[in-house]
Amino acid sequence: MSHITLITGSTLGGAEYVADHLADLLAQEGHQTDIVNQADLSELRLDSVWLVVCSTHGAGEFPDNIQPFVQQLSELKPDLSSLQYGIIGLGDSSYDTFCAAAKNLEQQLTSLGATRLGERLDIDVSQDPVPEDPAENWLAEWKNSLCE
Q1: Which H or E element spans position 6?
Q2: Which residue range is the domain that position 90 belongs to?
């Protein structure tokens, strides 16, 4: 089984709720999980699969709790070529910056050599008031990529 580190970027707690729910589901299947709500690059395992759950704040900005992590990635430019990750964005499609934070973080991770597993999930909270539901459906498919 895999070790999965769930990293959240959350303003109002929605991304944290999604991460908690997915961690429970993954643990039920025998995966080891950690949830990190204040990510620090120096404390993250690169031999773990990262599952990033990030909401978009304001006009496409990162939530406060993940900004230091994003800044570390930008400044330190670590070699993430051994890292595999999945990503889930939360946002409101009535804004032109829908899920911009997750999209920008995905681009940053890829530029540092990380490999995305599966497709990114963009959850429209105006259509899915319980974001855990589409995340759970996505996880059913995404977890298959852990074995490949």
Answers
A1: strand 3-9
A2: 3-147
